[in-house]
Design goal:
- This protein is of the alpha+beta class.
- The protein folds into two domains: 53 residues, no CATH class; 76 residues.
- Helix content is 50%, strand content 18%.
- Strand 2 and strand 3 form a beta hairpin.
- The chain starts with a strand and ends in an 8-residue tail after the last helix.
- Keywords: DNA-binding.
Length: 141
């Protein structure tokens, strides 16, 4: 059940849920009307009931990419392939350090690629792009 509260800047919702045996709260504020806050809260509750990981976008971009690589790609193909993923990880560590998945959108990513391309060959830049995009972490909007 969502809790809707009026604040100085608008309306806020709080949804409590249980994760790994502990109660947690997800909240969002700044809604101009109570109806909008209620609608957003019901969407959040719907996601929770469907089992969607509502905290997925709050994970560290680089750490998520590394974890995915070591779990699903490392030593599955060639040594050369692993080497390119290692280069892609270094690229991410340089340009996306401290950023969450939600913070890396197409614009942020393109700026990083453009900066990288200033000092690297076209093919090298293309390979970094291909290997980073295989995980589909970049938000499309």
């Amino acid at each position: 059940m969502a809790n809707i509260v009026k604040t100085e800047t608008g309306w806020k919702y709080r949804v409590s849920y249980k994760e790994a045996g502990k109660y947690k709260v997800k909240s969002k504020s700044g809604f101009p009307t109570k109806k909008q806050a209620l609608l957003a809260a019901s969407e959040m509750e719907d996601k929770l009931h469907r089992g969607v990981d509502i905290n997925a976008g709050e994970a560290n971009f680089v750490e998520t990419f590394k974890e995915w690589y070591t779990t699903f790609r490392k030593q599955k193909k060639s040594i050369e392939n692993d080497k390119h993923y290692d280069y892609a990880i270094k690229f991410c560590e340089k340009y996306f350090v401290g950023l969450k998945i939600n913070d890396v959108n197409r614009t942020t990513y393109q700026k990083a690629i453009n900066e990288f391309a200033k000092t690297h060959a076209k093919e090298t830049t293309r390979k970094r792009h291909v290997y980073v995009r295989t995980r589909h972490l970049i938000k499309t909007n």
